[in-house]
Amino acid sequence: MKKIILTLVISFISIISFSQISNIDTLLICKYIDSAKVHLYNAPQITKLYADSALITSNKLDYKIGKAKSYDLLGNYYYFRSNFEKAVEAYIKAGKLWEKIGREKKIANMYGNIGLIYCDMNKYDDAIDFYLKAEKIFKKINDNYSIANVNNSIGIAKIANNDTAEALVYYKKALSIAQQFSNDTINKKKGSLIAIIYGNIANLYSQQNLFDKALKYHFNSLKEFNRIEDNRNVSTSLNNIAVIYRKQNKLIKSIEYSNKALILCKQINKITTLHLVYKNLSASYELLDEHKKALEFYKKYKTINDSIYNEKTNSKIINLIKEHEIAIKERQNISLKDKNKIQVIRLFYALIVMLLILVILVILVFLYKQSVQKNKELVKINLEIVASEKSAVAPKIVSNKLNDTKKLVNSDTKKYAGLEIDDELINSLYQNIIKAVEEERIFMRSDITVQKFAEHINTNSSYLSRVINQKIGVNFSNFINNYRVKEARKLLADNSTKKYTIEHISSKVGFKSISTFNRAFKKFTGITPSFFLQNL
């Protein structure tokens, strides 16, 4: 028992120690990845710093998930920096790792990202090939949202490649799939996809001067954006409708929808759409020969347009300066911060490990003492049985459950249900059986079998087994072993035989091997022979 407890404690400490180191490093990788994500849009250079740190630590641990996520982030970083070749290289490395891990959706997303990059590189055929690879995986995992999304992306690539007929096929396919979850108001990402597809189809028809069809799909898009309360895209849809009406020379209608878009843009402060609204209003009033109003709105358009351009330019310069300054500070502080956090984590885990070890030791000591006390009580019971044993019709079977013979009777009786023996023969055989074991002590023979026993009392093995089962409630093997254990218990308790070893006594009472003896002794007494001997 002591060896078992010591082994458990050592194993537990080893597991906890390994887990502690692993958890600290894993937490550090997660911190790097989270920090990289936070800075992805506002400070990509810092994203690369953290992604590189996550990759270095993941490589040391051979932590595949950490490596895959790091390459994904590096792919995003290079894509935002328009370094398309390195972006593709990073995504492919991430994809190979996700393949080893078995994350099919991640692999499909990687294909989609590469497709997007090839679109930006004007390699539309290559882009479509990767989109189709992504679609194949999404179909396999039954991800209908992603299937619709990738078909929409293929449609965009086809438009860019001047293949409007094929583009419409993919848009319609995407629309058919997206309509399955068009009522999803909880997940706005899913809910907005159908509206985006409607808008793309409308733009396609608008390019073909099929304005009635374009209006139909723009209105469907508007309806979906309204349903999911996406006001930013509602303002865009309103302006798109206004532009179509202007192209149809329905100028009053165009101005009506432009004004709706104008009010909403001011409410939500969406400048990027507001300047387009002003542009459409200027063009509409120009066609109405209201040149004053046309000039007024054109000036507003020009002011915002120039402002957006200057703001973007200034913002890029300011962000580059800030990003550079922050990156320098991050490089200086990242090592110190991480060391401090690691020390805190290690201290925390050390305290937990110590507490857990203490609790486990207390529990194991308690269980050990409880087990020893229970076994000592069983020693007393067995000694009392030895002291009180006299010749009996059938020996009492003592086991660690004390009353477990009922199960043996129920299970063995079924085997002899069809064997008919009259009561007189049963009683006669029973007397012969008892005589053989108690007077002739046949159980002491190590070679005794049910066949040899049956021959000894002039009967057959089936009758013998049936009588033992019916009269005593056990099978032949348990019947013989019970007598052997009973005899061994007497010998072990007898001071005159203490010079003999357990192995000698085991062999003397008829057991062929010490392991069989130990199991039988434990079964019928509830304790091991060695424990019984030590606690006499």
Outline:
This protein is an all-alpha fold. It has 22 helices and no strands.
Please describe what this structure looks like:
With 536 residues, this protein is mainly alpha-helical. It has helices at residues 2-38, 44-61, 64-80, 84-101, 104-120, 124-140, 144-160, 164-178, 188-207, 211-227, 231-247, 251-268, 271-287, 291-388, 405-413, 423-438, 450-456, 461-472, 476-493, 502-508, 514-525, 529-534. It is elongated and about 130 Å long.
Labels describing this entry:
536 residues; mainly alpha; 22 helices; 80% helix; elongated
Query: How would the global form be characterised?
Result: elongated
The total of helices stands at 22
Distance between the termini: 19 Å
Q: What is the strand tally? A: 0
In terms of DSSP E residues, the strand content is under 5%
Largest sheet: number of strands, sense, barrel closure: none
Strand pairing plus helix content: what structural class?
Answer: mainly alpha
Order of helices and strands: HHHHHHHHHHHHHHHHHHHHHH
Low-confidence stretches: 13-21, 390-417
Helix content: over 70%
Would you tell me the overall average pLDDT?
83
Radius of gyration, rounded?
A: 43 Å
